What does this fold into?
Amino acid sequence: MSRKATASAPSNIAFIKYWGATDLDHALPANASLSMTLEVCRTTTTVQVHDDDGPDTIRIAPGDGTLTTAPDSFNERFARHLARLRERLGVHGRVEAVTHNSFPSDAGIASSASGFAALAYAISAAFDRLDTPEEMSVRARLSGSGSAARSTFGGYVMWPSDPGAPDSPATQHASPDIDLRDVIALVQGGPKPVSSLEGHRRAATSPHFATRQEHLPERTRRLSDALTGGDFDTFTELLEEETIDLHLVAMSSTPPILYWEPGTLAVIRSVRRLREQDGVPCAFTMDAGANVHVICPPSSEDAVAAAISALPSVHDVIRDRVGSGPRNESEHLF
It folds into this structure.
């Protein structure tokens, strides 16, 4: 006998970033983060659980009808996440899995968030053990991906829910009724040169790390107030300040991490021109990677997409929006 289930989970873009951890293996963050759940950028995962206890397998579905073997680094994280999920759920069985991303992996679009959240949902569904978003947040974080803890809610998400308890689950901070768009400029096609996990390891070596930690509680409070109060000007100022701050820490770590590419700066300059010269409300942010997320109200989306699509260094644009969270899928990948 075997059990099969398919789930999809969204990526998210952090407005206040998780960068640095008190316990990286268990994804216990040095600071609270605030993110927007996306809708178009998703990972879909099908799992089939067999009664025997043979080796687990996972394959990648690129979207062209083929299946490929997952890289060793991904296999290791997949195996660790499964082991922790089995322990938490008290279940057994060999797992066969296939996963598909609707967007590029390892490129600063939080593919680990959507990937490991989707795996947690699919495994839980296969054993008929789906639970509250808070419990699913904890299960997703068992992967060691902190951003996965935020992908179990729709709308705008705070993680951890209690800044004084880094092991607490995420919580929905604001609903998807606050309609923002994310126009993602892809300037880097392949994986980023340094993984987010390695970036977290190096974060505390930066002389700016402690200063950033001191400023974050007030910055988070002000950005949250601007987001929920509809003050897009203040939101823009704080969002871009936080983005630069994160990358300043990365660039000044030992050894330094430089995620930006020439195309990154080209997009930033384009965003500033749109805002300052053309009066188009928009703001840039980035996770650990070269690609740029341009956050804007719906009225700005077409102008933003047209401007950044015209840049020679931008090879593709993804138009995304605030999303509603994970869901079960009826169509399996295998």
Observations:
- Residues 2-176 form a domain with the Ribosomal Protein S5; domain 2 fold (CATH 3.30.230.10).
